[in-house]
Amino acid sequence: MKCIGILVSVFYTVTISAQSFSGTFDYGKSSINYKIKLTKMDNKTGAFFSSVEMNAYEIPCQNTSFENDTLKFYVVSDYYTYAFAYIKQNENFNGRLKIYSNESEQLLNTFETNLLQENETKSKVIENQNVSFNSNGLKLNGTLWKPQNSFQKGLFFVTSSQGNDRSGTNAEASYFANLGYTVFNYDKRGTGKSDGNWQSATIEELCSDDINAIHFFAKIANLSLSEIGIKGNSQGGIKIPYILTKLPELKFGISISCPSGTLLESDLNNWKNMNIDRIGFENIELATRVQKAGYDYLANNISYKKLSSIKNKYLNQYWFKYVWIPEKDIQKDYKLNFSGLPYFKNISQPILVIQGLSDNVIPKNSYLVIKQSLTKSQSSKYEILTLEGTTHSMNYLDKEFPYFQTLSPKYLDSITEWLNKIENK
Question: How far out from the chain centre does Cα 181 lie?
Fold first, then answer.
């Protein structure tokens, strides 16, 4: 199950009058806080779901109705449907949450949960401003998050992999803005509302967009680079040390789920972990070598003649059906050959590196290899943190209670503690 936050493909800004409510539901020894924003336009009610713990920010709820003091709506994830129903009690709502299986439509669990109306001051602690800027001839779009109580420090979100736009970082952007940081995130080229093509771009070109965005952020937020830190996950994490070396004035970096080798090695490691049960231990290493040839051709490391020779040699193996072989005319992806490791030893700023120990994408020893490189750097304030039961996307695996996919409980708290140390709070 993917986190609810990725269900939204573009950032949704509500421009009409709205009321905000906060709620909590408890499960086992844990609880999840959430917010519901209700809007009304043309006598039609809209509901928007937010929860930092579930990495969700203002997700439009489905089938929203508000009639005769009864409020209903639901949110759908990959495997579950969350059906909310409330009865209005004065300014608040009393209700329950029912969780259904998408596959069987079976009711799995029910929770009592209430909504308490937030006062207007509390619900407007952050101002969002949608902006655009030019980078390498492209128009890119982003959001400036301005806290009500700013302490004049900035946090910039480096773009990540695939076709992900800024919506995937909106929940964290709101979290850090609530801490007092002025925050900026934007749609990578070719995603969301931004021009361009991320597939054909190199890492260096994508980093050039990030660097241009950082300068733009500094200008519109009236911050110097020395007051701005950068944060990135996965492919964004691998770009952190590169950008820190290009902009040594930056204050700090936070690199999450960063591989120690190339992106190709991480993709191959992920493929191996996904297919080991299908292929079996006795053949997985050979099958992985064949899959590597497919990725090597995609990265322009070998010829199609070489790839075809490897393909034909193992075509009749039972496990070959799980191997992906690219077409001859496929668009090459030079990003696969990029490694951030050489740049870690060249940084001078404080840096926090976090890796989940249940991450099946990057090699398990990545944090140790990165630490060795950092010992050779001029950074005197680096920290390596590992989180038990935590995936590549920083989600916590709770096998006893799978209905909610939440961020690791130590993830954001650990970042906050580290920031307090380097900010000398």
Answer: 18
Cβ contact 246:327 at 8 Å: no
Query: Is the Cα torsion angle 195, 198, 199, 202 positive or negative in sign?
Result: positive
Distance between CA 306 and CA 309 in Å, rounded?
Answer: 5
How many angstroms separate the CA atoms of 39 and 392, rounded? 35
pLDDT in tens, 103-150: 999 999 999 999 999 987 665 678 999 999 999 999 999 999 999 889
Q: Are residues 234 and 373 in the same domain?
A: yes
The two counts, helices (H) then strands (E), for the chain are 10, 19
CATH of the domain at 28: 2.40.128.120
Separation CA 314–CA 319 (nearest Å): 9
Q: Which of 78, 93, 122 is the last residue of a domain?
A: 122
- Name residues whose C-beta falls within 8 Å of residue 206's C-beta, 6 or more positions apart in sequence: 159, 188, 189, 198, 239, 335
Residue type at position 48: F
Q: Which of these three, 71, 92, 122, is where a domain ends? A: 122
Alpha-helical (H) ranges within 86-178 are 120-123, 170-178
Q: Is the dihedral of CA 146, 151, 153, 156 positive or negative?
A: negative
CA–CA distance from 318 to each of 275, 281, 309 (Å)? 13, 14, 18
**Residue 276 is part of which domain span?**
263-335
Q: Which amino acid is at 228?
A: I
**179 in the Ramachandran plot: left (φ > 0), alpha (ψ -120 to 50) or beta?**
alpha
Q: What is the pLDDT of residues 14-71, one digit of tens each?
A: 344 689 999 998 887 788 999 999 998 888 999 999 999 999 999 999 999 999 999 9
Same domain, 181 and 272: no
